[in-house]
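Example record used in the benchmark description.
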Amino acid sequence: MTLARPPRALLWDVGNVIVRWNPRTLYAKIFKEPADLDRFLSHVCTMDWHAATDRGVTFADNVLALSAQHPHYAEHIAAWWGRWPEMFSGTFSETESVIEALAERGVPQFALTNMSNETWPDVKAMSPAFRHFRDAVVSAEERVIKPEPRIYEIVLERTGLEPADLLFVDDSAANIAAADAMGFHTHHFTDPAALRAAVEKHGLL
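Model output (structure tokens):
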């Protein structure tokens, strides 16, 4: 979609755009065999299962329900919450640099994340860049997740902006497509080194 006017604010995804998150970072420590690791993440602790916490189900309840289905994996499933911080491996310095540069220019910045409200405070503590966000829409608090249109509508209600006012940066193609269809400017985050040029192209830096 070609938009008539440039954006004047930036809307950031969080996971794998600002902070690096991957369950494999943890479970590679638990499973010695790659095939066992792949099987566990594709058939037990799947992203579809994890999405329930993004919708507001507590980690305790989600872990309990899955453990009842796979009792022989109960200890491994429990690690999803008990060792949650080990799924993170730092931040993207390229993203942090762009956030700081935008803040210096006074560009409004917001966050839109599929995330549990139980984990959001700890994630915010991972980078000083989060202090620049005027607001953050967290899926678990809203009980709706990307790429469902309603969560983008909530962003517009909270920010008081129109879709064409916002450049949305996300690593998920599905999330980008949904925002694109609603009239947002978008950048699909696949290469951290390409981020600054994309933001400059939209006239925000």
